[in-house]
Each structure stands twice: as structure tokens, then as C-alpha cells.
Amino acid sequence: MVPSLLFEVMLIGLLGIGSQWLAWRYRMPAIVVMSITGLLAGPILGILNPEEDFGSLYSPIISVAVAIILFEGSLNLSFKELRDLGKPVFRISTIGAFIAWILGSLTAHYIAGLSWAVAFVIGGLFIVTGPTVIMPLLRQSKLNPRPAKILKWEGIIVDPIGALLAVFAFEIISFMTADNPDGTKLLLFFAASLFAIIFGWACGRGMGWMFETGHIPEFLKSPAVVIVVILCFTGADEIMHETGLLSVTAMGITLANMGISSISDMRHFKENISILLISTIFIMLTASLQLETLLQIFSPNIIGYVILMMFIVRPLSIFLSTIGTGLSFNEKALVGWIAPRGIVALTVSGYFSGVLQEAGYDDAGILTTLTFGLVFFTVLAHGFSIGWLAKKLHLSMEGKPGTLIVGANRFTVELGKSLQKAGLPVIIVDSSWERLRKVRESGLNFYHGNMLSEQTEYNLDTIPYEYLLAATDDRAYNSLICTTFMPEYGRTNVFKISPFVEGKSTNSEIVSKVGGRILFDKKFSMDDLTDKMANHYIFRQTTLTAQYNYKQYVEDKDPSTVFLYLIKPSGQLKFYSEEMRTVPVVGDTIVSLTPPNKEKAKIQAKLETNRNNNQNGNQN
């Protein structure tokens, strides 16, 4: 029985999200897993053939998905990120793109054997990387902020530029080979490109104005943006093919830099849609390939072309375009290596393959094979090498899991010191210099500012920190912090001190239901932890052994002990919470807040009394 189209849609979504999960579970590049899954389901096993089954809907679905993905990426392009990187980003997106176009075209002609006309069209297209492949790599590799931002900006900015270069090259070729050359089409190309930018800017400004003035209710904001993105893309693309990508990029950048208060909510919504679309579109594209195409990519001229593009053209274009930009050799080497091609290259090359063949360029029939060869090999090579290379070049933030603590007080200072003693990165954030005094004296890393302010978002590097603990005296603020940062850190990595206060009638029942897992135990509020610190409770570290297991450890502890966190032999950090499912085993190190020895407590109490008496005497 032939499966229905509905079943195929379900299967594509299942394979896409399943591939993302497998990549996350086994720490593999997601784009590699999705590509292999699509090839298995499509040309190899013959389960799917979306291009054939979807018919005339196939191309519009791909185009709209690419538009939304590109818009979501450009929605993250704030000009504030370019304070120190504006020069290299501009150079790579202009001079670097031009060098890559020329060198790529020469390589396509002399190595792949394409005619000059086809070579310059495909050379322009292959300067693209794109958010569909760059974003998953950045999400997995944890690069330093500088190279990560450069790759992100380049991927999003150059995506529409590459498509436009291909269009421009085709229009130039058509003009030069025509019997009666007419410059009207060239003028139309430049006019259409300019219109696309202005139209995208106008759509962005219009949506921003409607958001800020309340003309669109909250529940309609995200759906309205999706529809306007499609309108923005289609309106420009109807005038000239591929200018729609430029239009949605302009719209996203405009919205990203308007300072709209609800932009973060929109960004999270679009990111979720983008991940779903990337997962399904990659499956659709790779599953639609023919088996002959797969076999052709191993021909010597295609392999030679791919090797030169990866090892000569890309590094050379980056190194030449970034001379005098302040980038280090290691940063240039990393950026010069990472350039995976993705959905835009596949979709646009398919379009030009047909157009060029209709124009009489028979060698354009190889474009799909050539494009997939470049996409597949770059996705494999860069997907598996980016983490390793970043570590070798000392550009990776990969390492022991760090903790960002919001709220400076006696308990968080001691907690931070215990984490630092265990060799784990830690930073404490607070808006009060007075509260940060103890943090500064302890030698811990700190940041002075409101965690929810826009200034903090741009100035505080949160990449080294996998966990966020909200531990201020304000229960509502803790919940707000957790709710705000949950999409960035993940539900399992965001914690707050218990909002429940024994014997008090508060709104803690409401607060407890808003964002974040309760840290340690429900019965230990901030007041309880502060009291324990005043009563000289001690941070103790215990490693479980075969002779002293977890059951014995728990039985020996005083009922007032607070179990804080455990560290696995691998360095993995786990904070105690009511939802923690990990059972400590032999080799794990547990850190807890325990009552002091009675003798030690007496000595400390006596010393504190003497200290207070001396202070009173000095004041008198």
C-alpha cells in the first residue's frame, strides 16, 4: 500500500526531530545526522521522495521555510555585537565574498569542467554558508564569542548575497550572449535588489511600530510576524527571483535593532519554528536526491573541486579579506575552515540548473550533483571537526560546567567558593556594589548589574556557564529570572531557591509555579540558608566509596543538612533538587551544608562575641 501524503509529512517530521534528538543524545553534529537520515530514507531505501510526492507544493514549501529560517537568524543580528567585530564582518561579507566568488568560479571552470557562464553562476552561489548549517554547529561547539559572532553574521548576511550574485552573474551572461543586448534587465536587477531592502526595512519598521503602540495583541504577535515574513519574502521574490531572501534579512535586522520590548519572546518562538523547519527541510532535500546523484559525487573532478573549495578557496578568501582587522591567526584559521553549505545552496542551485539548461548550457545538468557533493562533504568535515579544531586553537569554551549565580549574599559566596575549590567556573551577578563586597573580597568572579537589563545581555558573557541559580532575597525576582533564561539554558539547568517560607502567608504558591526548579529542597528558603550560615554551618565535601556508600552517607547526616550538589568523576555537575533523578554512586563527590562540630561552634561563637565586644569598645 502506498503511504498517504499525510503519513509522509508525519514521517518527515519524526525523522527530522528524531535526528536532532540523536545528535543531542550522542553529541554528534545535527546536520550530519539529518543528512544521513534523509539519504537513508530517500535514495538508499526508497521510503521517501518528497519532491515527487509533494509535486508543485515542494518548491514553495522549501522557499517559505528558508525565508523563515533566514529571518529568525537575522533577528539575532544586533549591531551592538559589532562593537569590536564590525571591521572583520564587513570585510568578510564584501571583500571576502568577492574573492571567494572569483576563486570559486575559476575552480569550477578548471577543475569541475564547467563552462565560464555556469562556473560564474555557481561560484557566486557557493559563497553562502547560511544559518541552517552554521547555527546548529555553533550551538554544539561552544566557540569563543568572537569567532562565533563572525560565523553567525557571515552566515546570515552572505546567504542572500550569494543568491543575488548567482542571479547577477546569470543576468550578465544573458546580456553578453544576447543577439541584441538590452541593459533593461540589468537595471531591473539592481532596482529589484534595492526595492527588496527597502521593502524589508519597511515591513520591519511597520511591525515594530504596531507592536510598540499596541495595535497587535500579545497572542497575535508571533503569528502576525510569520505571515508578514512570508509577505515580505513573496512580495520581493515575485519581482525578481531570490531577492526575497534579501528582503527578509533586512526585515529581521531592522526588528532586531529597534529595541522592542517583546523581541525576546518573538525570538524564542521563531527559534523553535526554525529548529523544526531545519529538521524537516534537510530531510526533504536529501530524501529527494536520486541515487545516481550520490554515485556521481565520487567522480574525480567533483572531489577535486570540493577539496580545493575547502582547503584553498575558503581559507585564502578569509585570510586575504581580514588583513589588518585585528583577528588573531587562530581566529582566521578557524573561520577560514568552517564554511558548510546548506539549504540555500541546494535549493538555488536546483533552480539555476533548470534555467541554465533551458538557456542552452547543457553542462549545468551537473550542478545538483556538484552542489550536493560540496554540501555533504563540508557538512561532514566541518560538523565533526569544529569542536576539535576550536580546542586545538584555544577558541573553545568547552570545559567543566560553570555556574552563574544571581544574588550576592553570605550563602552564595560560600557556595561559589566551594564550586571554585572543586575547579568549576563560577560567577556571581548582583546590582548592588555593597552586596558584592564579600564577593570581591573572596576573589570570585562577579558582574555588577541587573541580570534582566539589556546592558547585561550584551556585556556579560554567559557561554562558560551551563547552570543558572537564582538566589536573591526576592522570591518573585528569582522566578522571573528563571522564566526569562529558561529558553537559553534549558529547563533542567535553571534553579531557584525555594519560595516557600514556613509560618508566613505569602504568594509563594504562585511564585513556585513560575519558571525554574526548586534548588536543594523545598523546605530550605533563602532565610533558612542565611540562618544556617549565621549558625556557622560548614560546606563539606565527601567522596563515596565501596566501604561508605550513599545510603550510609545519608543515614549519618543531621536532619538539618542541606545536600547541595554532586560531581561525577567525569567532571559532570549535578545540583540537588526535588526533581533530580541521579542516584549518587561510588566515585561521586557530594558537597553539603552541614552543622558545625559543637566544640568548633562554641569557639566560633566565643570569637564572634569577643569581636563584637571589641567593636563596641572601640566605638565607645
Short note summarizing the structure:
This protein has helices at about 5-25, 30-45, 50-55, 60-75, 85-110, 115-125, 130-140, 145-175, 185-210, 220-240, 245-255, 265-285, 290-295, 300-320, 330-335, 345-360, 365-390, 410-420, 435-440, 455-460, 475-490, 510, 525-535, 550-555, 600-620, and strands at about 400-405, 425-430, 445-450, 465-470, 495, 515-520, 540-545, 560-565, 575, 590-595. The protein is of the alpha/beta class and about 625 residues long.
Radius of gyration over alpha carbons? Answer: 29 Å
How many beta-strand segments? Answer: 10
The average pLDDT score comes to 80
Percentage of β-strand residues: 5-15%
Which residue ranges are poorly predicted, with pLDDT under 50 across at least 5 consecutive positions?
A: none
Largest sheet: 6 strands, parallel
Main structural class? alpha/beta
| Helix content bin | 55-70%
Domain RCK N-terminal: 404-484
Domain Cation/H+ exchanger transmembrane: 22-392
Membrane topology: Multi-pass membrane protein
Pfam family, one: TrkA_N
Structure description:
The chain is α/β, with parallel strands linked by helices. Helices cover 62% and strands 8% of the residues. The protein has 25 helices and 10 strands. The chain has helices at residues 5-25, 30-44, 50-54, 58-74, 86-110, 116-125, 131-141, 145-177, 184-212, 218-239, 243-256, 263-287, 291-296, 300-321, 329-337, 343-358, 367-392, 410-421, 437-442, 454-459, 475-489, 508-511, 526-534, 550-556, 598-619; strands at 402-406, 426-430, 445-448, 465-470, 494-497, 517-519, 538-543, 562-567, 573-575, 589-594. The strands form 2 sheets. Strands 3-2-1-4-5-6 form a 6-stranded parallel β-sheet, with helices on both faces. A 4-stranded antiparallel β-sheet has the order 7-10-8-9, with helices on one face. Strand 5, helix 22 (508-511) and strand 6 form a beta-alpha-beta unit. Helix 4 runs parallel beside helix 11 (243-256). The longest helix has 33 residues, at 145-177. The termini are far apart. The mean pLDDT is 80. Keywords: Antiport, Cell membrane, Ion transport, Membrane, Transmembrane, Transmembrane helix, Transport. Residues 22-392 form the Cation/H+ exchanger transmembrane domain. It is a multi-pass membrane protein. The chain crosses the membrane at residues 6-24, 31-48, 54-77, 89-111, 117-138, 150-174, 186-207, 219-236, 242-260, 272-290, 302-321, 333-352, 364-390. It is found in: Cell membrane.
